[in-house]
Amino acid sequence: MRIALIADVHGNVAALDAVLAELRQDVDEILCLGDVAVGPQPLETLERIAMLGCPVVMGNWDEYLLDGPPPARGPLADVLAEMCAWTAAQLSATDRGFIGGFKPRVELPLADGKTLLAFHGSPRSTEDEILATTSDEQLREMLAGREASLFAGGHTHFQLVRRFGESLVVNAGSVGLPFRQPRRGVMQISPWAEYCIVSAEPGRLAVERRRTAYDVDGFKRSVRSGSMPHADRWADLWEI
After folding, report:
1. Which of 26, 56, 98, 193 has the highest CB neighbour count under 10 A?
2. Residue 230 gets which letter from DSSP?
3. CA-based nearest residue to 159, from 216, 109, 205, 210
4. What tens digit of pLDDT does each residue of 176-213 get?
5. Could you say which DSSP state residue 237 is in?
6. Is-contact 186 151, C-beta < 8 A?
7. CATH of domain 2-238
8. Shortest CA distance to 218 belongs to which of 79, 39, 15, 80?
9. For residue 44, how many other CB atoms are within 10 A of its CB?
10. What's the predicted TM-score (pTM) here?
């Protein structure tokens, strides 16, 4: 069984389409780990995800679309809050119903009685950050007593594979907004789309981290020509 883990698309249809084209005939199932629409192409992105018919986990920005943006924090707080409000204003009742159906957690059976538990930040919160530097004690608290052979999340926009006891903890990275290390305090975005493939068969469990190229320059042009607030500032995040 091969499962694709995609997360944090953030309204980047060009990146999502590149990933989905690569996945054709390559996996048995796709699992989306949240933060789908807040970004420059929200309705097109929601349409793509809906057409997949795959399980979708609720992300923090998915919650904000339904409940309102979070308190301002971070250097891009004003940009993100206005993008969230702009996205929310475009949603139809059907779109809101679709997002409202995203699950807090999704559990899938794997081979040999193994299980995959998917979430956005952690099983206890969409806003928890599981990083390489997260201590085992902190991770144990975030997992909230839940058990799985493989824990899969998103939210941080950094790919990760780490051991925790007998389990694997995986972060799929971000399809539409994969972070680079910040420069001068501003996060910059890598010029590719990220996702993971989980391969599960009797006696074997493997995780493959992937990066897929797409037309970043074309994407930036589409951002700048659209109506999203702070479009130029957003597109500049991809400047290398």
Report:
1. 193
2. T
3. 210
4. 999 987 555 567 899 999 999 999 999 999 999 999 99
5. G
6. no
7. 3.60.21.10
8. 15
9. 16
10. 0.95
